Amino acid sequence: MKAPSPDVPASAPPKATAISVVVPTYRRFDLLNRCVTALRQQDLARDEFEIIVADNDPDPARQAALQALLEARYPPADGLPIVRYVAAAQTRGPAGARNRGWQVARGEIIAFTDDDTIPDASWLRRGRDAMAEDVCAVAGRIVMPLSATPTDYERDASRLSDAEFATANCFVRRAHLQTIGGFDERFTAAWREDSDLQFSLLESGFHCGSAPDAVVVHPIRPAGWGVSLSQQRKICYDALLYKKHRDLYRSRIRRRPPWLYYVTAALLMVALVATIAGEPRVALLAAIAWAVLTLRFFRRRLRGNRRTLRDIAELWVTSVAIPPVAVFWRLVGAVRYRVLFL
Question: Distance (Å, rounded) from C-alpha 174 to C-alpha 180?
Fold first, then answer.
C-alpha cells in the first residue's frame, strides 16, 4: 500500500470536530458545487462538522482556480471554514484524494461521498448515530433514480445502489483508517477501492455496519455511445482486489469466473484461426456456437431496457465486443498484479 505523502500530517490537527466530510473531485465544479450546497444544509450544528474538498487535478493553475472559487463562494463563518481545500495532485484517482482528505481532517469520524452526489439534509446526523461503539464503519444508502425504460448503461450504473459498502456514502472512524493505512492508492480509478477498504477493515478484525437512513442521491450522469466497452478496463482492478482478499472477493464480489465470456471469446478466436488455416467446417461450427452465445448475451442485456434503434444498435455492437474485451482486461490485471485470476 502506498505510504502517505510526507507533506501531509498523519495525525489530526489539535482542534477537533465531530465529523469530517471528504469529497474527492476532478474538474467537475458544477457537480461539486451542488454536492457542497447540500452538505451545507445538514441539520447538524455548524461546529460539528467540516467539509474537505480533495482536488485530484495535477494542474497548478486549475488548483489555484478551484481553491479561489471555493473561498469566494464559501467564506469562513464564525471563525470556522465552510469548506477546506486540499490538493491531491501527487496521486491518481479518488483513492489517493480521499487519503489526502482524511489525513488532514479534524474529525473523529470521516464521512466519504462523491462530488456528484446530493446528500440528504439528515445524512451526517443519521450516519453519526449509526456509528455504535462496536463498529468501525457504516455504509449508508445510495439512491440512483432510474426512468421507466433505462438504457443498459443506466441500469448497470444503478447497481451501485445495491453495493454492500461504497465510498459514495460511508462513515469510517479515523483511528481505524490509520490502523489499516487508509486507501490503497494502486486503485487509480473509481473501482474496487471501496471494497478493498471494507475488506481490509474486516480482515483486521473490525466490524462494519449499515446506516440505511443515511441517504445520498446519486444521479446517473450521461455517457457516450458504447461506454460499456471503455468501462471494461476497470476489471483489471478486480485482479488486485482478488490478490489481496481472495476469500472475501469470491464470497462477496464474484463467486466464480465469468465462464460465458471466456467461452464466447475462445469460440471467436477458434473461428478466426480456423478461417485463416483453411478449415471452413471448424470455422463454421465455432462461428455458429459464438453467434448463439452472443445472441443470448444480447437478449439478456436488452430485457427491460430502452429499445430505440440507437440503443439496440449499441447493445448489439457492445454485446459482440464485451466478452473478448473483458477477457483481455482480466488478463492484463492478472499479469500486472502477478496473480492467477480468472
Answer: 10
